[in-house]
Specification:
The complex is a heterodimer of chains A (148) and B (411).
Chain A (H helix, E strand, L loop, with lengths): L2 H5 L2 H8 L12 E7 L4 E10 L2 E10 L2 H14 L4 H16 L7 H4 L15 H16 L3 E3 L2
Parallel strand pairs in A: 1-4
Antiparallel strand pairs in A: 1-2, 2-3
Helix pairs in contact in A: 2-3, 3-6, 4-6
Chain B lengths: L6 H9 L7 E2 L2 E2 L1 E2 L10 H14 L9 H21 L7 E4 L2 H16 L5 E5 L8 H10 L2 E5 L9 H7 L4 E7 L11 H10 L3 E5 L11 H4 L3 E5 L10 E5 L1 H6 L10 E4 L4 E3 L13 H17 L1 H21 L3 E4 L8 E6 L4 H10 L2 E2 L1 E3 L4 H6 L5 E5 L6 H18 L1
Parallel strand pairs in B: 3-15, 5-6, 5-7, 7-8, 8-9
Antiparallel strand pairs in B: 1-2, 4-10, 9-10, 11-12, 13-14, 14-17, 16-17
Helix pairs in contact in B: 2-10, 3-10, 4-5, 11-14, 12-14
The chains are: A alpha+beta (148), B alpha/beta (411).
């Protein structure tokens, strides 16, 4: 696979074209707005937490294929998880992309390992991590984050 | 449809720019980000090297020969810039860090000293952030009001819209000569005439203009003209503020310190006249000297050739892009410099930039520091290819192939 094909893997392209949970949810308990002012990516993330479980999640906004597919796959993976589990997945994902992947809990990430190719494009790491920063912010009660 | 340039001429010119024979992603580099910064001819790099290795010294103070010679090089560079702009006097040429600092200088000095509450500053909807934010700051400081000439769908402004914003409250018009995001060339002569008609001063942001065509500040009659060296094939870290001499000498200093004073006592300091008045501290000596070399290089190539080649490239690229389905050109004014901003349906500009990079093509993807322009056209960002006289139609063919590759991969 070329470097470009490692970046734009089929699963990423498919989620970009057909993002999951790409909508507002009815009763959000936690929300955050994430933006990358450098490239103009911006997403509103809303989460409903009941009994410590992410019972509903949705995102809206616009951005590149990497940021959108990352958001879509994140919503699939964290839905139904407890807050602590979701934060562990978030930590694993950020570790995978931010620190040479050393120490990332790959088992937790499953399909999200397709984003490993992004590391070869350092400028795009912020695209892949944007929604995860927003998730972190939402769960911690921060309203707006920026990954510039 | 267009005049062709002999490939021998073009190859000779391309050989002046060593980077153009390098590879990127394993294929010959196609450099199409000239509106962000231009590549450097070898003579400019050589000039910097020679100055640093054989001629280096500070300016305006040493009694020794190295310093006197450096001073001569530095001051003769000012004369080179004067000639390039056809300014009346070298006193009207102030070296700054770049366009941004030149605008900030006028905003801090002229803006804060001469504007007051209720006065108006007029800019256009296509300004770079560097020609918006300094004026917002002036408005905040003085109570002046910022007025904006709206953009038409093709990325131009209507003179009637501009005229309707002018009044005796207008004290300054600060307008871009060529839009970095759209390529639009503004009718600056007319803008200056109309602004002077209501007694306003005029600053023209020429950052994107001076590399494309001859600018004559006397015939334009603008009060200030600003641009950067690095977009004119010269080193980074240097720019120019041209200002009319009497106006400059009425303006308070922007920064204070060494090299800009007449005399200093602890009770009172008197300031030197322009240009020294606005050049506090040791300037970018080597870069200024390299900049003069870049100007001489451009003058050797000549604007006849530059305009011929760049309009050929723009026409060819526009024609090729218009044939592509799902691609929109943003900025279609009748008067345009060689800038092609575009959007591909369903593909984010950032992804376009990455795919192009993989094909060895350097383009810009983003908001181009012109977020109001992006908002006006309803896009978060655009992809932008900008051409210099050293680019070729073959390179545009590769750009077009890159667009198709983006569509295959991402739509």
């Amino acid at each position: 696979m070329s470097r470009l094909e490692q970046l734009y893997q089929d699963m990423i392209l498919e989620h970009n074209k057909h993002p999951r949970h790409f909508e507002a949810i009815e009763n959000p308990t936690h929300t955050a707005f994430g933006k990358n002012p450098l490239c103009g990516d911006e997403y509103h993330l809303s989460v409903e937490i009941n009994d410590n479980v992410l019972s509903s999640i949705g995102f809206q906004g616009s951005g590149c294929a990497i940021s959108k597919s990352s958001a879509s796959m994140m919503t699939e993976l964290v839905l139904g998880k407890t807050v602590q589990e979701a934060l562990l997945i978030k930590d694993a994902f950020l570790t995978l992309l931010m620190q040479e992947g050393v120490g990332a809990d790959r088992a937790l990430l499953g399909k999200l390992m397709v984003f490993e190719g992004v590391k070869k494009y350092p400028i795009r790491v912020k695209c892949a991590t944007l929604i995860w920063r927003a998730l972190e912010a939402a769960l911690e009660g921060v309203v707006e984050i920026s990954t510039e | 449809m267009t005049v062709s340039i002999s490939s021998d001429d073009l190859n000779r010119i391309r050989a002046d720019f060593p980077v153009l024979s390098t590879t990127s992603s394993g294929v010959p580099l196609v450099y199409l980000d000239n509106a962000a910064t231009t590549q450097k001819p070898k003579c400019v790099a050589d000039r910097l090297y020679k100055f640093y290795t054989e001629e280096y010294g500070t300016i305006h103070r040493g009694v020794y020969q190295l310093s006197q010679q450096a001073t001569d090089f530095y001051e003769s560079s000012r004369e080179t810039v004067r000639g390039f702009l056809n300014a009346r006097s070298i006193s009207e040429v102030i070296f700054t860090k770049g366009t941004t600092e030149a605008i900030n200088l006028v905003a801090h000095s002229f803006g804060r000293a001469f504007l007051k509450a209720g006065d108006e500053i007029v800019i256009s909807g296509m300004e770079h952030h560097a020609n918006i934010v300094p004026w917002q700051q002036v408005c905040e400081f003085t109570g002046a009001v910022l007025r904006v000439v709206p953009l038409q769908d093709d990325g131009s402004i209507l003179m009637s819209d501009f005229q309707s914003l002018l009044s005796d409250r207008t004290k300054l018009v600060s307008m871009v000569h060529v839009s970095n995001a759209l390529g639009t060339v503004n009718p600056v002569s007319e803008i200056v005439k109309l602004a002077h008609g209501v007694g306003a001063k005029v600053l023209i942001d020429g950052a994107q203009a001076v590399s494309h065509f001859q600018v004559d500040v006397q015939s334009l009659d603008c009060d200030f003209y600003v641009f950067s060296s690095h977009k004119l094939y010269g080193p980074t870290g240097v720019g120019v503020l041209y200002g009319k001499e009497d106006l400059l000498n009425r303006m308070p200093p922007y920064q204070t310190g060494g090299d800009m004073i007449e005399s200093v006592t602890f009770e009172k300091t008197t300031f030197a006249k322009a240009p020294a008045r606005f050049e506090a501290g040791t300037p970018a000596i080597a870069e200024v000297i390299g900049f003069a070399e870049a100007i001489r290089y451009v003058q050797t190539i000549g604007f006849d050739f530059i305009q011929k080649q760049e309009s050929l490239l723009l026409a060819y690229a526009t024609e090729q892009f218009e044939k592509l389905s799902g691609v929109t050109i943003i900025g279609t004014a009748s008067e345009k410099a060689s800038v092609l901003s575009f959007a591909i349906d369903g593909v984010h500009p950032h992804d376009i930039g990455t795919v192009m990079d993989d094909l060895g093509i350097a383009i810009r993807a983003g908001h181009h520091c012109a977020q109001p322009v992006m908002k006006r056209f309803g896009v978060p960002a655009t992809a932008r290819a900008s051409f210099a006289f050293y680019n070729t139609t073959e390179e545009i063919d590769r750009l077009v192939a890159g667009v198709k590759r983006c569509q295959e991969l991402l739509t």
